[in-house]
Amino acid sequence: xxxxxxxxxxxxxxxxxxxxxxxxxxxxxxxxxxxxxxxxxxxxxxxxxxxxxxxxxxxxxxxxxxxxxxxxxxxxxxxxxxxxxxxxxxxxxxxxxxxxxxxxxxxxxxxxxxxxxxxxxxxxxxxxxxxxxxxxxxxxxxxxxxxxxxxxxxxx
Length: 156
Known about the structure:
By secondary structure, the protein is mainly alpha-helical. The chain has 6 helices and 3 strands. It has helices at about 1-5, 15-25, 35-55, 75, 90-110, 120-145; strands at about 10-15, 60, 65-70. The protein has a 3-stranded antiparallel β-sheet. A hairpin with a 4-residue loop joins β2 (about 60) and β3.
């Protein structure tokens, strides 16, 4: 739903959106979507998704025209859509960058290259450990900050 709205320059009707989603879910062209398939998606969108996303400020829905549009909070969600990537930051690349930089600094320190000649290997190793620890903490924090309990009553 959000991917389709993000890629549409104009407001989209709920009917049109339901038809497009039904086509994708049934792996068929839009023209081949049956009324039953479209209705199933429409009901799900109307009764659940539209209301929740509207309450969250991600979309707006005009009940009289049936038009949907993205709102300002959509920018907080769209980077995590499947179409725009995996929804995650490229953490392996960040770790690889730290490995590369750490290797260069450590080798330069061991062989007393330029300004690294005055830095002890112990200090470099401590810096490398701190770099990996910091990166790992940020990685864990960023993953946890996007795991939210769904709204509704809590189970005890």
